[in-house]
Amino acid sequence: MKKTLMITAAMIALASCTTSHPGGMPAPQLTFAQFPPQTLNVQSATVSEAYEITSDPQDVSGQFVISPAEAIKRYAAQRYQAGGAGSGQFTILIEDARVHMKEDKEKSKVLSWADVGTDDIYELFLRLRVTPEPDGFNGRQSTIIKMERTLVMPSSVTLAEREMRQTKFLETLITDVDKKIQDLLDATPAIRQ
Questions:
Q1: What average pLDDT does the structure give for the chain?
Q2: Model pTM?
Q3: Domains of the chain (ranges plus CATH)?
Q4: Residue 80, SS3?
């Protein structure tokens, strides 16, 4: 009995060590510096949201170091600049950027009681409507970019580690979004300056 209590106490101490937040560590930043700005042959380049977070009570996107919708907005503002004349426009409409979270419990009763072995599973649902319309362009009007991604993370990681993993997850997501948007811009050469 003593041996079991000592093992359990050691596991709890280990779990509490791994969940402490080191003081003074700054949160990781998403700068999108790896994406050079592009000047497009349009009068306006905008990004906006077309969904309501409050309509989904399971959405936890606000618990990320930066929400996926905000990451898309910052990326687009840094990446795409309007530099043309006429009535051309480039728009990114965020139709969905929700994140759901569930826990995957460890099967061991002792480990689950000590909250060790539990994973947090984040499921991201992203849907963007991208419309490149240079002045006088009569091609296809818009393209839907749809992505579903999963981030699995041990619930025992520190807050700093959680933020770093979320940041890397968003960086990978934005890199994939950028590739799809670049393919769309390549199919619309009149939008390039």
A1: 80
A2: 0.76
A3: 42-191 (3.30.160)
A4: strand
